[in-house]
Specification:
The chain is mainly alpha-helical. It contains 19 helices and 14 strands. Helix 10 packs antiparallel against helix 14 and helix 15 runs parallel beside helix 16. The relative contact order is 0.14.
Length: 570
């Protein structure tokens, strides 16, 4: 039970009136609060709690937390998986970059809707808080900053997914919202609007909150650093990266240094501890979507967004075999005799785990035949668990899953939920963001110890990977990079490699490729080789100037009578 945290309150199911920037202006959830009775401290606090709930109110068909479809399957990290290409065929469309159908009504339209509902909740709370005085509600200023953080998060996610989105704050009336275009601000201006919310949170939140799960000054600093890093890679109207803004990079360094120097966060000693419920909210978690189970409510507050992704043939799970790591990703974990990545030749052949050396993170990320599954040596992963190996091969994703024996695990019919938190920003991300900024500023020597912290932790993260006889299923050899030959080009290559291995199947990969301006060349090269291994990819092709972002949902364009402008290429 997690009732001492903010999500213990979230589980109470507080609901609120809401406005939105689309056809969900008519959305009327059942609840007790209205414009007549929100002007009290207790009502405001309830609205704040509901806003925290809003950022985690997603589902399999409208993801907000795990971006496994949008960021992992759309990248070179993973295949859709499941029972063939026609099983939840909509996800196959993302994998093939086939989203040009104007009637496409699944997944990303619901993600758009869900994030704007979350924004609406934050704005409703802000309206209530703005109507109070500090005397009436002593925590008012802190709660306002928290709501602006949450609003910033939702707008950031929308921008990362769709690029051109309307910015909605509490000052806009319902009529104003209907007039707010998704291209009112250019790319840089929209980043700045969203950044204003995070900066307000940095300036007005305490460094540490009494309740776990609430936004703090440091989580806001980390998120603003993430925003500035994305903003630094300047794009034209057709999504081409035209330059890197050094001033933005310096902001990233300053903001991440505030987080690092605070001493409040650190890497978990074992990489595994980021992916099991028993060690969640640990020193590495900077901001996470909070979930709960056995919290006094009927069903708890569980996440089902990855509920299709457990091994289909395993008797303890039984559904549904989605999100299978690619052969390309498995090969990327190969290491040379010096324990370093094979940058140029990693994909020349398929990795042989019995003879070649690999980075230990592979066994935290990929389910492999005969290797301990999710740190349980008594139940090694079996190829028999894979649903459709003829299409997608035998590898299976693992980070997002929990053992059936975990107190966080719950099965509802064929689908699986978990109360394991979903991290939005971790300390490893902060270290690598700072390293990236240093490298692009030409100060790559300062990035070396940051990246080596990540590799040192990876090399040490083998304690939970032993088989029942005490041996390892893989041959591990991961070493730190040397200062010799650490040029800017080499450092950039190493940084990008570390980001892939560290966050593989967690979704950042696609968005990293777009940010760096290398999505088209990387993904089409991946497809060219991978379609020989996996013929279902034969018709996949990434189109530059279109596929970097999702299309604006057609129903939103229709509802606004053409006010919203469709993204290029759609």
């Amino acid at each position: 039970m997690k009732s001492k945290y903010i999500f213990g309150l979230i589980a109470s199911g507080t609901l609120l009136i809401t406005t939105s920037c689309n056809d969900f202006l008519d959305y009327q959830p059942q609840g007790l609060l209205s414009s007549e009775n929100i002007k009290s401290a207790s009502a405001a606090e309830s609205l704040v709690t509901a806003a925290y709930a809003g950022i985690g109110n997603d589902e399999m068909i409208g993801p907000m937390t795990s971006m496994w479809v949008y960021g992992s399957v759309r990248s070179d990290d993973a295949y859709k998986g499941g029972g063939g290409v026609s099983d939840v065929a909509e996800i196959d469309f993302y994998e093939h970059y086939n989203l040009t159908r104007p009637d496409f009504g699944w997944m990303h339209p619901y993600t758009w809707e869900n994030f704007y509902k979350a924004i609406s909740r934050a704005n409703a709370a802000l309206t209530s808080l703005n109507a109070l005085t500090d005397a009436e509600f002593p925590l008012r200023a802190t709660r306002i900053a928290e709501m602006r953080f949450l609003r910033g998060h939702s707008h950031f996610m929308l921008k990362m997914l769709f690029k051109n989105v309307p910015y909605i704050d509490e000052k806009l009336s319902s009529d104003d919202i209907l007039k707010e275009s998704n291209v009112r601000y250019n790319n840089d201006e929209l980043w700045n609007k969203i950044g204003e919310d995070f900066q307000f949170a940095v300036d007005n939140l305490p460094q540490k909150q009494a309740q776990i799960g609430r936004a703090s000054k440091l989580s806001a600093s980390a998120y603003l650093a993430k925003l500035r890093l994305f903003q630094a890679y300047e794009q034209d109207a057709n999504h081409k990266v035209t330059g890197i803004n050094k001033n933005r990079l310096q902001e990233v360094v300053t903001l991440t240094q505030q987080v690092i120097a605070s001493g409040q966060y650190s890497l978990q000693p074992d990489f595994a501890e980021n992916f099991i419920a028993e060690t969640e909210n640990g020193p590495e978690s900077i901001f996470a979507i909070q979930y709960s189970i056995n919290d006094g409510t009927a069903a708890g507050r569980l996440s089902y967004v990855t509920g299709l992704n457990y091994p289909h043939g395993a008797p303890q799970y039984g559904c549904c075999g989605f999100h299978q790591p690619s052969q390309n990703l498995a090969n990327a974990y190969r290491t040379d005799a010096n324990g370093l990545p094979l940058f140029e030749t990693f994909n020349d052949k398929n990795v042989d785990f019995s003879t070649e050396t690999v980075d230990p993170r592979v066994d935290h990320t990929i389910g492999i035949d005969g290797h301990p599954y999710k740190y349980d040596a008594t139940k090694p992963f079996s190829n028999s668990w894979v649903r459709d190996p003829g299409v997608y091969g035998f590898f299976h994703t693992m980070k997002e899953q929990q053992l059936a024996t975990s107190p966080s695990y719950h099965k509802e019919g064929p689908f699986i939920g978990s109360s394991k938190n979903i991290d939005i920003i971790r300390y490893d991300d902060v270290l690598l963001m700072q390293a990236e900024a240093y490298i692009e500023l030409g100060q790559q020597a300062l990035a070396l110890p940051l990246i080596n912290q990540i590799r040192k932790r990876a090399a040490a993260s083998t304690g939970r990977l032993k088989k029942t006889d005490g041996s390892f299923a893989s041959k591990y050899n991961a070493k730190e990079y040397s200062a010799s030959g650490w040029t800017q080009d080499y450092a950039r290559k190493a940084l990008r490699w570390e980001r892939r291995l560290e966050f593989a199947t967690e979704s950042p990969r696609f968005f990293d490729l777009v940010r760096w301006g290398i999505a088209e060349q990387t993904l089409n090269a991946y497809i060219e080789k991978e379609k020989v291994r996996r013929p279902f990819l034969a018709t996949a092709k990434f189109t530059a100037g279109r596929d970097e972002y999702l299309p604006i949902p057609q129903r939103e364009i229709s509802f606004t009578k053409g006010l919203y402008v469709q993204n290029p290429g759609y």
